[in-house]
Write a structure and sequence with these properties.
CATH architecture of the domain at 3-145 and 167-193 and 246-252: 3-Layer(aba) Sandwich
Largest sheet: 8 strands, mixed
Order of helices and strands: HHHHEHEHEEHEHHEHHHEE
CATH topology of the domain at 3-145 and 167-193 and 246-252: Rossmann fold
Number of helices: 12
CATH class of the domain at 3-145 and 167-193 and 246-252: Alpha Beta
Shape: globular
Strand content: 25-35%
Helix content: 40-55%
Structural class: alpha/beta
Number of strands: 8
Length: 253
Amino acid sequence: MSEKDNVKRVFSKNNDAYVTSSTHSTGKDLSLMIDWLNPDSTEHVLDIATGGGHVAKKLAPHVKQITATDITEAMLTNTAEHLQDFKNISYQVADAENLPFENNAFNIITCRIAAHHFPGPELFISEVYRVLKPNGKFLFIDNIAPKNNTYDMFVNSLEKMRDYSHVRSRSISEWKKLLKQNDLKISMETMRKKVLPYKEWVHRTLEEKDKIKEVNEFILNASADIRDYFQVEFKDSKISSFAIDEWMVLVEK
C-alpha cells in the first residue's frame, strides 16, 4: 500500500474526528491568517488538503470563492456536509502533488497541518507555484522537525507510531530550500509550540489498547531532555499533554 493510500485509509476512517479536533478547529493561526493574507471579496482561494475545512470556513466570509481540495473523498464529503451553509466553497478531490488546475489560477493558496502526510514535498511546492497567480500569496502551516536530530527522530517516530499515514515533519530549513528553489519569497513567518491534548490526540487515530500503550511507553521511556523539549505534562500520573513545533509562513510569487 502506498503512502497516499495510507492517507486515504486513515482519513476515511477518522473523517469526523478532524472536523471536531480542537487542534485543528482552534488556534491563533486561524485568526492570524486573516491579518497576514488581508483577503478581499474579489479573490479566489485554493485550500490544499482541507481536512475538516477549518481554513476554508475561516476565509469564506472574506473572499469570492474557495476551492477546497483533499485526496480523501470521504473526508471531503463529510466536510462539505458540515460547511453546507457556506455557498462560496466548492469541493474537489485532488492530489496536492498533482493539482488538476490551470496555471496561474488562484490569488491565494493555503495548506494547514497537512504537508507532513505528503511523500513528495518538492512536487507539492512546485504545484503551488504553478497554479498561483503572479503576486499571489501562499500561506503554509505545518508541524515541523526540530534542528536537533535526536528530537527530530523522536517526534517523527512518535507521529508514525500514532498514525501510519504520517510521512515526515520536515525542518524549517528543508521547507525554505524548496520555497527558494521555486522563487517563492517569504514575507512573514512565525514559529510556536503547539500544545496537544494527549488523550484526544492519541485516540484520533488509534483504537487498539496495545497500540496506545506502545505510544504511552515511547513517551514515558524518552530521556528527560526530550520530555522537557516537548513539554510533556502529567495529571494523576497519566500523560495529559505535550507540545510540538509548528511553523507558519506567508510567501509571495
